[in-house]
Write a structure and sequence with these properties.
By secondary structure, the protein is an alpha/beta fold. The chain has a single domain, classed as Ribonuclease Z/Hydroxyacylglutathione hydrolase-like (Metallo-beta-lactamase, Chain A, 4-Layer Sandwich), CATH 3.60.15.10. It is built from 8 helices and 13 strands. The strands form 2 sheets. Strands 1-2-3-4-5-6-7-8 form an 8-stranded mixed β-sheet. Strands 9-10-11-12-13 form a 5-stranded mixed β-sheet, with helices on one face. It starts with a strand and ends in a 10-residue tail after the last helix.
Length: about 325
């Protein structure tokens, strides 16, 4: 089962496509998965729906809720946030009948980021009347969520990775994994608020699950081959950072000298600069996940982009 959702205001592109990836389990894929355009998903039970993440804007979250309603009249009773970033949480407030569930750190992360903002780093976005709605049922390590008798294992990944508060939703009976932003499929991973080495450690854990179907945080539904693609990219970042640091370069200058090779075709290539900021910090001995100057990293990304704000189509 697959169908497109509502279109953008100009009617030029659909906001999302609903794909049934296993009986009663749906991915909601938003093209083209670039800045602030994430994937969500939902599981349909007899008494209600479990949603994995919200969207970045009011319009996109409303379109997602309409896509759920096109499949089932059952209410969304539970909303699980995979991490705190706004493309996965700003739309939480529209799930007014749902229990919002996430790792303990998601509340803190949402509060630190605050309300959505485009300037000065991104092109203007019509966010809508967003109200921050942090999770009010949180966990430290793991929980189980049941959709009728189907077990969903929701677990914190145990180390800084994409962020400090990443969780996955693993459905062992179906070999389905909702990875959040641990996996970008076709887009450049982004780890300014996490850890390069920690993310690679987590990818090893994901391999061990034996997932057959993965709903990545961004990009098309995929299989376990996406784990290897992300790991190759992260290894490339670590190698580039080592060479740049040894040459006495800054992350920005290191990025300017790089040949991205097989990764040049990934969307949002300017993220290499932010990832190098994180990798340099790890080389310099900062603990994994330590806070670095994200605004400085984003400013360097804008500079790498010719001084233009980063393109956001959300």
């Amino acid at each position: 089962m697959s169908h497109s959702g509502e279109t953008s205001a100009g009617g030029a592109r659909p906001l999302g496509e609903t794909v049934e990836i296993s009986d009663g389990i749906f991915a909601y894929v938003q093209a083209d998965g670039t800045w602030w355009i994430n994937n969500t998903g939902f599981l349909v039970g007899a008494r209600g729906v479990v949603s994995v993440d919200a969207c970045a804007t009011s319009l996109r979250t409303e379109a997602y809720l309409a896509a759920i309603a096109a499949v089932t009249a059952a209410p969304v009773r539970t909303l699980i946030n995979t991490h705190h970033h706004g493309d996965h949480t700003f739309g939480n407030y529209l799930f007014d009948r749902a229990t919002i569930v996430a790792h303990d750190g998601v509340r803190q992360g949402m509060a630190a980021w605050g309300r959505p903002k485009s300037a000065p780093f991104w092109t203007d976005v019509d966010w809508g009347p967003i109200e921050l709605a942090p999770p009010f049922l949180t966990f430290e390590d793991r929980i189980r969520v049941y959709v009728d008798d189907l077990v969903c294992e929701v677990s914190h990944v145990g180390t800084p990775a994409h962020t400090l508060n990443d969780s996955i939703i693993w459905i062992p009976e179906r070999r389905v994994l909702f990875s959040g932003d641990l996996i970008f499929n076709g887009g450049t991973p982004f780890l300014v608020q996490g850890s390069i080495s920690g993310a690679r450690e987590v990818l090893t854990k994901l391999r061990s699950l034996g997932a057959e179907t993965i709903v990545p945080g961004h990009g098309p539904v995929c299989g376990p081959e996406a784990i290897e693609a992300v790991d190759r990219y992260l290894g490339f970042v670590q190698s580039a950072a080592k060479d740049g640091r040894e040459a006495g370069l800054t992350p920005l200058d290191t990025a300017r000298d790089l040949d991205l090779g097989e990764f040049a075709a990934l969307s949002d290539p300017e993220r290499i600069v932010g990832n190098l900021h994180r990798a340099f910090a790890e080389i310099d001995g900062l603990p994994i996940g330590a806070v670095i100057d994200a605004r400085a990293a984003l400013a360097d990304m804008v500079e790498f982009n010719g001084g233009r704000p980063l393109t956001c189509l959300a």
